[in-house]
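Kindly draft a sequence, keeping tokens residue-aligned:
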Amino acid sequence: MPGIEAMTLFSDHSFPRHTHDHYGIGIMTAGAQKSWSVIGHVESRAGDVIMCNPGEMHDGLPATDEPRGWRIIYIDPSLVARELAGESVDGELIVRPVVRDPRLARAVARLFAELERSCADPLAAEESLVSCLMRVAHRHRVDRAAVACASPSVVKAIRHLDAAPETPISLAELASEVGISRFQLLRGFAREVGTTPHAYVMQLRARKARRLLASGASPADAAHRSGFADQSHLTREFAKHFGITPGRYAISFKTPAR
């Protein structure tokens, strides 16, 4: 389905704090995970529905010594907005990071099954998607008031980095751009965003490379266009953020030869 990407992972990898361009909704299939999220620290275990919001800073670490597994679907925000346009949903949709809702879990499992079919039934897939979104929108939202807001200077720094993550910039230049000292920027950014400006830029570049790879770019081209020093640099950051290499990710978008 256009605007949707599905992924299955089973790993003991610890993901650093990062964000996604899309909404994420999935199911924990094995083990347990602890995460920093939009509402603070949470834990999830097999059977729980896990979710994330576009631009939400979060991480993911095994909660035990064992690997954990999950299946997750990333949905373009514009698709979510279109699907919910006819519903009585007020304001921006902010989803909870973890919920135990067997009915929603079944709906997510059905949607994942439809997306896995080689000849997917559009009607069945769309029905499953709408069922998931309606359930989330009406039962598992987070009030905007419960989400901490960043200060004007940090918001300005984020916007500057978001606009051109591939362009090199020093901490001094960024601090001058937003009108505060380097120390104030570093402290404020870490406190309010949950990571440092450099780490934030690295995950922005990794996300840009991911989009380029999905559109058919080679790993070398994606590295160059995303602002990485070289392909090796991209590979290290990509694996750190997404748990797989750029090459393996790119292969998943290629149509098998017939």
